[in-house]
Write a structure and sequence with these properties.
The protein is 70% helix and 3% strand. It contains 14 helices and two strands; from the N terminus they run αααββααααααααααα. A two-stranded antiparallel sheet has the order 1-2. The termini are far apart.
């Protein structure tokens, strides 16, 4: 009986040793880290920085409260990213916050090559889709080493997940929110944009997310208290 017990313990130790996960040598970990940190070339980094610089030079048909200068796409992107994060956090949304921020940061990156097309520019809207498709294709060809960005752009354009719909809707309330905060609002008047035109363009797009729809209704209530203050008609 004693011999049998010793034999059983020996077999158990042998099996435990054989099934133990082998450790990689420290040199292997060092090689892996070295390969990752060496993968970004200065040339590619400069090329990506140039893309970001182009985004900063794109003027948008929008203004911040009490300012005369038009905003640029980079400034707008920052606002969309921070407002998306703020709203999702305060509302306690069960969404992927990393994906939300990536969508927000990349949502207008194509304007580096396609430019900004104002919502009410009927002429510019005619070839907007064509210009944006060309911009996406160009970014894909220039930044093949950054597949995560390309996947995010494609996913945002498709709007098949709640995060992309949330960011898309948030994007649509940023400009009217800013304009409603002006002490002497005249942008919509000067641009001959009526209240109904604004609603026709915004309502269906903002409806993609229920939370942003609720916030949009609050903003509408604010505007409707005194429509003549904001619009000619």
């Amino acid at each position: 009986m004693f011999a049998k017990t010793l034999f059983s313990q020996k077999i158990h130790r042998t099996l435990r040793i054989k099934t133990k996960t082998p450790k990689l040598p420290k040199s292997a970990h060092r090689c892996k880290l070295r390969r990752i940190t060496m993968s970004v070339s200065l040339e590619n980094l400069e090329k990506f920085a140039t893309l970001l610089h182009k985004v900063q030079r794109v003027k948008r048909f929008a203004k911040r409260p009490n300012e005369k200068e038009f905003t640029n796409t980079a400034e707008h992107t920052f606002e969309v990213a921070m407002m998306s994060w703020y709203i999702a956090s305060v509302e306690g949304h069960d969404l992927d916050f990393e994906k939300i921020l990536k969508y927000a940061l990349a949502h207008d990156l194509i304007e580096a090559y396609a430019g900004d097309t104002p919502a009410f520019d009927t002429i510019g809207q005619k070839d907007k889709a064509k210009r944006e498709e060309a911009a996406i294709a160009r970014i894909k060809s220039e930044f093949t080493e950054f597949p995560d960005l390309l996947n995010i752009i494609n996913s945002y354009e498709n709007k098949n997940d709640p995060e992309s719909k949330f960011v898309y809707a948030t994007d649509k309330i940023v400009d009217p929110l800013n304009l409603s905060m002006d002490d002497n609002p005249s942008f919509w008047k000067d641009s001959n944009i009526s209240y109904q035109t604004l609603r026709n363009y915004k309502d269906s797009k903002i409806a993609k997310d229920p939370t942003i729809t609720r916030i949009w209704k609050l903003l509408i209530e604010k505007l409707e208290v005194n429509l003549k203050r904001y619009f000619n008609s």
